[in-house]
Design goal:
Layout: E1 11-14, H1 17-25, H2 38-41, E2 46-54, E3 57-68, E4 75-79, H3 93-105, E5 108-113, E6 118-123, H4 124-132, E7 146-147, H5 149-160, E8 164-165, E9 179-184, H6 190-196, H7 199-211, E10 214-218, H8 223-237, H9 244-257, E11 262-269, E12 272-282, E13 285-293, H10 302-316, E14 321-326, H11 338-345, E15 350-354, E16 358-361, H12 364-377
Parallel strand pairs: 4-5, 13-14
Antiparallel strand pairs: 1-2, 2-3, 3-4, 5-16, 6-7, 6-15, 8-16, 9-14, 9-15, 10-11, 11-12, 12-13
Helix pairs in contact: 7-10
Organism: Aeromicrobium wangtongii
Family: Belongs to the FemABX family.
InterPro entries: Acyl_CoA_acyltransferase (IPR016181), FEMABX (IPR003447), PG_Glycine_Bridge_Synth (IPR050644)
Length: 378
């Protein structure tokens, strides 16, 4: 009986944006938050692309965003929805240990990452039944339709390596959502997607078409019109809107990387803008990233029409997943957040639970001080 040869240690070093983009293009998909262009969008952080090398061959990559401590040249190193490495490797330490060593040399007092690893999935029918069950208060209480045992075991492995899972509140942490809602597209056509939706969604799509709602794609010049409706939505739904300059920067950075990376959608009824959204696509994964709608003319169902157009375009572009992004895990019918889940569940997709975000303190005193400071900032 022969034993397997030991795995070769991996090295981590900075790579250029061009090298990083080449690696992204070689993958089925990575999170758009892990593209080199995202460093330009998040310009309040310092960005760095890093690569994992097996000898001279690049086998993994990540975008690292460095947030500086007040008055100190020490940083939190943040890898949103990353890194893009082989998470199925039985020895993740050979990936994470050289990463931590590199980031520590760059002045990091702590590392935060969000492994793009799905642990559990719930189908739309399961969620619909759970919402109707008064005993079930959150998605975590519902037996999953699919469990990835290797992904779940990864949680214990990370803990053993010194990483700490960041607590979530209703499924959200300080960074990216732990629970997302996704519509699988692989092997499907438009008729199949429509058939998978509930009756209300199909009726609203037909209603929008009958009312004459027209969905078009916009240019950079249309971002101001999008932002006007987005600001109205923020006031109505009580959240703080991002400034127009943020979306202009996002447009410029992502479009420079790939011409169709970011697409702006505009739904109009008799010339009036009633809904507007942005969609980001990296390879086989498309994300609904920002959405807005007017209070006026809500009865023409512009939001359903615009979502349907994005789904069809994602399918035509070869995407295998249409991602409607974050949901909370509440199933309480009296909680205002449950309406968002019900809207997304109507598409016939599935809720997915990611591994969540994790911290590795490299300097415990500074890390504690930073987390306390951020908590006080709210």
């Amino acid at each position: 009986m022969t034993s397997e040869p030991p795995l070769v240690p991996l090295s981590v070093r900075p790579i250029s944006a061009a090298e990083h983009l080449d690696f992204v293009r070689s993958r089925p998909s990575v999170s758009f938050l892990q593209t080199p262009a995202w460093a330009q969008v998040k310009n309040e952080w310092r960005g760095e692309s890093i690569g994992w090398f097996d000898g001279s061959t690049i086998v993994g990559a990540a975008l690292v965003l460095y947030r500086q401590l007040p008055r100190l040249k020490r940083y939190l190193a943040y890898l949103p929805e990353g890194p893009d490495i082989d998470w199925s490797d039985g020895d993740v330490a050979r990936w994470l240990t050289p990463m931590a060593a590199h980031l520590k040399k760059q002045g990091a007092f702590g590392i935060r990452m969000g492994p793009p690893v799905i642990t559990r999935r719930w189908r739309a029918a399961t969620i619909k039944q759970a919402i109707a069950d008064p005993v079930l208060g959150s998605l975590s209480d519902v037996p999953a339709d699919e469990r990835d045992e290797a992904a779940i075991e990864l949680r214990a492995t990370l803990s053993a390596l010194g990483w700490k899972e960041i607590p979530t509140e209703g499924g959200f942490s300080a960074g990216q959502p732990k629970f997302n809602f996704q519509l699988p597209l692989a092997g499907r056509d438009e008729a199949d997607l429509l058939a998978g939706m509930n009756q209300l969604w199909r009726r609203n799509i037909k209603k929008a078409a009958k009312a004459g709602v027209e969905v078009t794609t916009g240019s950079r010049d249309d971002l101001a019109e999008f932002h006007r409706v987005y600001a109205e939505t923020a006031e109505r739904d009580s959240f703080t809107p991002r400034p127009l300059s943020y979306f202009q920067r996002m447009w410029d950075a992502l479009s420079a990387e790939e011409p169709d990376r970011l697409v702006l959608y505009l739904a109009r009824h008799e010339g009036d803008l009633v809904a507007a959204t942005t969609m980001v696509r990296v390879g086989e994964h498309a994300w609904y990233s920002y959405g807005a709608s007017t209070t006026q003319k809500r009865d023409v169902r512009g939001s359903n029409a615009i979502q349907w157009q994005m789904m069809r375009d994602a399918l035509a572009a070869g995407a295998t997943t249409y991602d409607m992004r974050g949901i909370t895990e509440t199933l309480d019918p009296d909680d205002s957040h449950v309406g968002l889940i019900q809207f997304k569940v109507g598409t016939g997709g599935e809720a997915v639970e990611y591994l969540g975000e994790w911290d590795l303190p490299l300097n415990r005193a500074l890390h504690l001080g930073f987390t306390t400071y951020m908590r006080r900032r709210g």
